[in-house]
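Annual report, structural modelling task.

Input specification for the magnesium ion complex:
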Amino acid sequence: MKFSRFFIPTTKETPNDASLPSHQFLVRAGFVSQTGAGIYDFMPLGKIVLDKIRKIVKDEMDNAGACEVQFGFVTPLSLWEESGRDLTMGSEMLRFKDRKGTNFVLSPTNEESVVNMVKNRITSYKDLPLHLYQINTKFRDEARPRFGLMRGREFLMKDGYSFHSSEEDLVREFNLMEETYKKIYTKLGLDFRVVEADSGAIGGSGSKEFHVIASSGEDTIVVCDKCSYAANIEAAKRSAKKYDFSNGALEKVETPNCQTIEEVATFLNVEKEQTIKAVIKKAIFKEGSKIVVFFVRGSDELEETKAVNSIDALELIDATIDEIKDAGLCAGYCGLVNLAKDTLFVIDCELENANSMVCGANEENFHYKNFDLNSLENVVYKDLIAVKEGDSCSCCGGKLSYTKGIEAGHIFQLGDKYSKAMNANFLDEQGKTKPFIMGCYGIGVSRLVAAVIEQNHDEKGCIWTKETAPFMVDIIVSNSKKEEEAFLGEKLYKELKDANVETILDDRINARFGFKMGDFELIGFPYAIIVGKRASENIVELVDRKTLEKLEISANEVVSKILELIK
Ligand code: ATP
Ligand code: MG
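The model returned the following structure:
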């Protein structure tokens, strides 16, 4: 390919809202163009990279025995009514009517489509397992589309769905997908981690995420310094902390104007660990909303995803002062003694059997001392807390710390949630009708374009990995008006092409050398060959984009040198 014939509109202008390097550089280097909030067009360079990633994903999925299909981007809302998800998908799912008034949605994911495809076509255990996948556009009307390709509204996803006659076979496929995903991210040249993930309200034991490690990642990953334990903070566990406080009799004490844990602990001269914090939220359910109280140790923080899952809610939002009052609760003094009847509450499991605790008295300016949780009956304990840095690993006792990750993939053991709801069954070996056991497996293909750059860039621009680079080599003809330079550039271009090296020739007549070099650095091709002053002596310079080191080399040797480097 020649620059003079290609469309690479590089620019010095950074979009106003672009805080991430990948967002800035992909726009500035002419890979993508924004047309609306969270909506991007791929220009030629961007399309090459996207297709490269897509091909790596496709090859590995095919290797693993999955079959590629394509579902309609538009699906009838009736399918979502069958599964019940029309009520739970919220406003992320974009709905619209056609001219006849029939309701449709732009696919945010395709479990319903795949069940609809397989239902009544596969009827016997003999035809299982089956794994169907597609690489197709998704639309999610994200509340805050941001960070360029990282969190778009329209984006490209690989989504796969598997069907099995037993849980054991699902686990086999799940493990196969974990291995397949590892191969994909390794091939892409990425530093990544497989982490335990939140399984959401769907439950089920198995859900793993694949995170590209990057300081700009939106997700917090908890990792152990001793063993291989890694988990999204939404699902991370720690070894339970044990405390031993001397016990006394339950006692109500006045704590004037002590609303926060700090104030109460200081006033009563106890550690925060000896207090119970009440976090009051408004929970949104399918059927409506309700005020809910989560009790955690005063030194701990509530993990919101865990809290949502503990009560099977759709989401939690802040409760207003009036809503808290109307629920019979006393903000700042809410506790487990004399809690208003019919209050929905959950207690963190590390508080089970705790005694000698300080908690609110459900009365302005009063707390209780020496509260023993064993005095409670029929209460629910769930894991609610956010693991902190320095906590101990529950697997090995090692020290846990945080790192940031970009979620690039998610695999999930679904079980029979969708098949049951949509009445999609098969006959088992005994001739009994059973719903399919399913798994689902996603990869953010367009998000990966950005993730590669988040992990591989410097202050000048992108640095593509070898498997993702739009072209491996950029031949920069320093002054294209000089005949010997133009001639040698063309010659090397032909040689590299004959050697199957993806090469672009910067043959622009009117661009100065500095401009061409700037484009090379911004776009981030792995190598450049500069054909300049010493062209007449048959000498060129080889530049490594990663280190920006230059090597003078004979034009006769540069092709074999490049072949050696990219081997
Ligand atoms: P997130 O937590 O980042 O919102 P998710 O859990 O909603 O993602 P999944 O439903 O698991 O995402 O989708 C599978 C994959 O699709 C994700 O692992 C991610 O790589 C990608 N993805 C999800 N949402 C977006 C988006 N808005 N823009 C780009 N890629 C996305
Ligand atoms: Mg996910």
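DSSP finds 13 helices and 31 strands in the chain.
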